[in-house]
Amino acid sequence: MLQCNMNDESVTGQLRDRLEDLAAEIGHARKRMDLGHLAALCFCEVRPWARRSGESTLADLSWRLSIQPLPLDRTTFLAQIDRLIEELEQACSRAGVDSAAITLRQARAD
Predict the structure, then answer these.
(1) Does the structure show a pLDDT above 70 at 7?
(2) What angle do CA 58, 59, 62 make, to 5 degrees?
(3) Are 96 and 12 in contact (CB under 8 A)?
(4) Taking a C-beta distance cutoff of 8 angstroms, is the pair 25, 41 a contact?
(5) Closest among 80, 3, 6, 102 to 49, alpha carbons compared
(6) Looking at residue 68, what is its pLDDT?
(7) How would you class 73 by CB atoms within 10 Å of its CB: exposed for 0-12, middle for 13-18, buried for 19 or more?
(8) What one-character DSSP code corresponds to residue 43?
(9) What is the pTM of this model?
(10) pLDDT band at 31; cut points 50, 70, 90
(11) Which residues 6+ apart lie within 8 Å of 80 measured at CB?
(12) Whole-angstrom Cα Rg for the chain
């Protein structure tokens, strides 16, 4: 049984599978410092997933990243992305996808 802040029926198998895929893609892009891919994933993939699964904080973080001007420096941009990744880690934990949370945590630490 899933343990999360969403109602128990809201994280279906498809949403959970997509969460695992997102975590793997974002973790890989973060490790490779692929800023373009990170931006695309965070702006275009995370928010729809978060909205469908009831993760309003994650959806809001993604939305704010997509409407603000991009930071001028790489360090600031990565700090913003890492904040979103941290929230995605928590969503993984709430959904019972601990391996995905670990993948994301390791990607941020590298």
Answers:
(1) no
(2) 85
(3) no
(4) yes
(5) 6
(6) 82
(7) exposed
(8) I
(9) 0.84
(10) very high
(11) 65, 71
(12) 13
Tokens of 78: 């990565």
Q: Count CB neighbours of 57 within 10 A.
A: 13
Average pLDDT over residues 50-65: 94
Query: Considering the chain, what percentage of its residues have pLDDT values greater than 70?
Result: 89
Q: How far apart are CA 29 and CA 2, in angstroms?
A: 27
Query: 96: how many CB neighbours lie within 10 A of its CB?
Result: 15
pLDDT at residue 9, as a whole number: 52
The total number of residues written for the chain in this structure: 110
CB 77, CB 89: distance < 8 Å: no
In the block, tokens 């994280």 appear at 11
Residue 85's alpha-carbon distances to 1, 7, 9, 57, 60, in angstroms, are 24, 22, 24, 12, 13
How far is residue 74's CA from residue 28's CA, in Å, rounded to a whole number?
18
Contacting residues for 102 by C-beta, under 8 A, at least 6 apart: none
95 — phi, psi (to 5°)? -85, 0
